[in-house]
Design goal:
The complex is a heterodimer of chains A (310) and B (425). By secondary structure, chain A is mostly helical. Chain A has helices spanning 27-52, 69-75, 78-111, 117-129, 132-142, 149-156, 173-198, 202-210, 215-226, 228-243, 247-252, 264-274, 278-303, 305-309, and strands at 55-56, 64-65. Chain A is 68% helix and 1% strand. The chains are: A mainly alpha (310), B alpha/beta (425).
């Protein structure tokens, strides 16, 4: 059966009532309020952003139309590409570390009969409810070279030679920031996985056990296919949020030392507001949006979502 | 007339009275809005006191103050001005990052005539005003009423214990840092994670390596001056040398501005190179006496000047204000002796030229005043365009992190100076 066009005038509701409502109600009527909100708060700002990217503007003096020059500049902007490479690094690590860790915890808390699993779920999820600035301040203390938890611990167990300036070393800063971010994010992945695992009918596992399947086989052939939808969502959300990483980096390092932890959102803020190159900042924002959308489409295509729907 | 009609007439009369009575009653009450950059609690309290004192002399007048951090101010103020809003009076950062740009956009009232009429120019230096106004050297749009200076804060207790004398040359200064290192004390704390405090160390050396004309020329975006000269290279090499020698806290790139100050306040390091905006904290919080001396000259042939003073923020009037006379009166009050005495007493280095200078309120302020009296003020290159500031901060982190050489740093700075500062961006 062919898909119904959104703009079709075919009736979706029961016809005619005693109140004299129109016999046919377009779906447009129902989506109109949402469409207005979507247009006002997404489409319009997006169009304005595109428009801004074509102008040279400091945010206060008169704008000057410069066409696509900002896009041309972006292509040769080494700082932008370095920041983008950090986002890609972050994304790859984010898809692996917090997702796997969340999955492992979810399996432990859902599938293993554990006393106090509700308490553990709460504890593990706790970082997720902290504001990002609070998280940044906690990790700022943990990473402090003089009195921070890590260096104090290393010193107290005789490993003083391993103490580091965690946020001041250009080789360590990005992994250090990523660990802080993962500490928050794994709680999110865990809770989604728990919901998905809890929804799997126990009958499948019982049948597998009867057939002699071991734990790995149960995971590989029952659990994993059953939580495929949740896994897709988590990977997509994680990947997108890793491109949007801002607060933690901004509070802890502002992209430093040098540009060692610079990520695209911080670079965008620096361009648009600190350097008052609003048009260029808009260009960076659009480039980031294109990368996110591009990645999402690519991932969904690879994942076979479109194929499944067909 | 029907009862219903009578009722309607009475209702209309009552409504009319109600609607007109409220504005009539309120027309004498005026609220003047004042925004300023500076969010330290003591600063906010001080501005509130001065604003209240101004309002107390004028019945029906209230001054509503709002404080912002530096970055927030630079974001919020243009948006407010652009939307025809914003405060009646504001105390805004200097140059093209704020005041100069607001003036060019027509948001700041020209104060040139008012400055003469009200005698402001008798009490404030025109050279400071010219520098802070950015692109509008012949016209006054803002008056800076306080100065900040950068130098070396030191722990008098540690210096006394080790028998260290205040340095008069760079060699003596380095000998002091070496002596401190020998007894296991980190000589200088630097909040290099926040990048700009590290720039202050470099700026001190830059500042003492070349004549003042070069500094002011670059601040004014004069293409005749360059940032890749041998003097800049010498200052950059010296910064790196200090970092590698351990004179600067080896953990500086992972230590923020506040933490670096706390290291000094707690007595864990002997010195802190910083600006006088932290002076009140350094005067009050440590359990030891803190002193101040200017950074010795990298080029001893040059006249010694306190390394990097700059006129601070500027008072400006929003051209969209509906209370112009009151706004002018407020600016006049802020620039007057009573308010400036309050600022001086609170530990701010006022630019107001008193007939007789009041005594310093703290021994540390006395030290700063004394240092400036025997060296003279210089200007701070850190007041230049934002792109150059950011590039300097970034490349200095890379320099002390071992990622780039001094030559690469000055080349990058010169490139940014040409591409961003000289182009007027």
């Amino acid at each position: 059966m062919p898909a119904r066009s959104l703009f079709s005038l075919r009736p979706l509701l029961p016809p005619a009532t005693i109140l004299g409502r129109p016999k046919e109600v377009s779906p447009l009527f129902f989506i109109f309020p949402a469409l207005v909100v979507y247009t006002g708060f997404f489409i319009y700002p997006l169009v304005k952003l595109l428009e801004l990217s074509l102008y040279k503007w400091d945010g206060i003096l008169a704008r000057k139309f410069i066409g696509l020059r900002h896009y041309q500049k972006l292509l040769g902007d080494e700082r932008f590409w370095e920041a983008l490479s950090h986002n890609f690094y972050w994304m790859i690590a984010a898809i692996i570390v917090p997702v796997l860790f969340g999955l492992l915890l979810a399996i432990l808390l859902s599938r293993c009969s554990m006393y106090g699993s509700i308490i553990f779920r709460t504890i593990f999820f706790m970082p997720q409810v902290f504001s990002s600035v609070t998280v940044a301040l906690i990790w700022q203390w943990i990473y402090n070279p003089s009195y921070g938890a890590i260096n104090v611990l290393l010193t107290s167990i005789g490993l003083e030679q391993l103490t580091q300036g965690w946020l001041g070393d250009s080789a360590l800063v990005l992994p250090s920031l990523f660990i802080a971010w993962s500490w928050v994010h794994y709680g999110f992945t865990m809770i989604i996985f728990i919901a998905a695992i809890d929804a799997v009918d126990e009958v499948f596992f019982d049948a597998a056990k009867v057939d002699g399947a071991n734990l790995w086989q149960q995971f590989r052939h029952i659990l994993l296919p059953s939580i495929r939808g949740a896994l897709t969502t988590i990977i997509l959300v994680t990947a997108i949020s890793s491109f949007q990483i801002f607060d933690l980096v901004y509070v802890l390092t502002r992209g430093g030392p040098g540009d060692a932890s610079m990520v695209v959102p911080v670079y965008m803020l620096e361009s648009a507001f600190t350097l008052r190159k609003v048009g260029y900042g808009a260009t960076v924002a659009i480039a980031m949006g294109v990368v996110i959308v591009g990645f999402s489409v690519l991932f969904l295509v690879l994942r076979g979502v479109y194929k499944d729907e067909d | 007339m029907h009862a219903k009609s009578k009722f309607m007439v009475v209702l209309l009369v009552l409504l009319t009275l109600l609607l007109t009575a409220a504005p009539l009653g309120a027309q004498d009450d005026v609220t003047l809005t004042f925004w300023f950059e500076g969010d330290a609690p003591a600063t906010v309290e001080l501005f509130q006191q001065v604003a209240d004192a101004f309002a107390a002399e004028r019945p029906g007048v209230t001054v509503e103050i709002t404080s912002y951090g530096f970055d927030d101010f630079l974001r919020v103020m243009p948006l407010a001005l652009d939307g025809g809003e914003g405060p009646d009076v504001a105390y805004v950062p200097w140059g093209l990052q704020a005041l100069g740009r607001y003036a060019l956009a027509g948001h700041a009232v020209e104060l040139t005539d008012l400055a003469g009429e009200n005698g402001w120019l008798d009490r404030y230096e025109m050279s400071d005003i010219r520098l802070t106004n950015g692109l509008t050297p012949d016209q006054i749009y803002g008056i800076p009423f306080e100065n900040v200076t950068i130098g070396v804060f030191y722990n008098k207790e540690i210096f006394a214990e080790l028998g260290l004398e205040l340095p008069e040359s760079l060699e003596e200064f380095e000998a002091i840092m070496g002596a401190l290192l020998d007894v296991g004390i980190t000589p200088v704390s630097v909040g290099g994670r926040d990048s700009w405090p590290l720039a202050h160390v470099w700026l001190q050396l830059v500042h003492t390596a070349m004549p003042i004309e070069v500094i002011t020329g670059i601040e004014e975006n004069d293409p005749a001056y360059r940032l890749d000269t041998p003097e800049f290279l010498a200052a950059t090499e010296k910064t790196l040398e200090w970092a590698q020698a351990g004179y600067l806290d080896p953990n500086m790139l992972s230590t923020g501005f506040v933490d670096a100050n706390n290291l000094f306040i707690n007595g864990d390091v002997a010195m802190n190179i910083g600006g006088t905006w932290v002076m009140n904290d350094f005067a009050d919080l440590p359990e030891f006496a803190v002193g101040f001396f200017p950074t010795p000259q990298l080029d001893p042939a040059l006249p010694w000047h306190a390394g990097g003073k700059n006129p601070y923020n500027n008072l400006m009037i929003n051209s969209a204000t509906e209370h112009m006379d009151l706004a002018i009166a407020f600016v006049d009050y802020m620039l007057g002796e009573a308010a400036q005495t309050a600022f001086w007493d609170a530990g701010h280095i006022t630019a107001y030229q008193f007939d007789e200078m009041p005594p310093p309120s703290t021994p540390l302020l006395a030290d700063v005043a004394a240092a400036n009296s025997y060296t003279g003020f210089g200007y701070n290159i850190g007041v230049t365009c934002s792109a150059l500031n950011l590039a300097t901060w970034r490349t200095l982190q890379e320099l002390v992190g071992g990622d780039i050489s001094p030559e690469e740093l000055i080349a990058t700075n010169q490139q940014v100076y040409e591409e961003d500062c000289l182009s007027g961006e």
